[in-house]
Amino acid sequence: MTRLGIASYVVPITVTCFGYALFQTSNNAAVMSGVGAGERGVISGLLNLSRNLGLVTGASLMGAIFAAASADGQNVLSSASAARGMQVTFETATALALAALLLALFSLRFAGRTQPRIA
Fold this sequence. Notes:
The chain has 119 residues and is mostly helical. The protein contains three helices and no strands. It has two domains: 1-34; 36-119, no CATH class.
């Protein structure tokens, strides 16, 4: 991968940024479509606040998990320790993503039960 030089960094980060921009635009539109005109500023602020808090908290938590999982008592991080730290970090991220997916599915199922049916 190092033979590609800067392209090995620029291409993946460009794809990631385009994907994030597409998601964020459609997500903002979906959230804001259900909000009244008088509440759009507050909801927009809360949406951005929750995104930023999630980003900062998630990055800090994943960094702490990596540091704890890769610690082996040496001053220099070995490649085996770094690999173990990455493995544990990605396993944790996968478990959290699955938990979020399950919560979203359960909330959709629960939301369908609470709305009154119109005949």
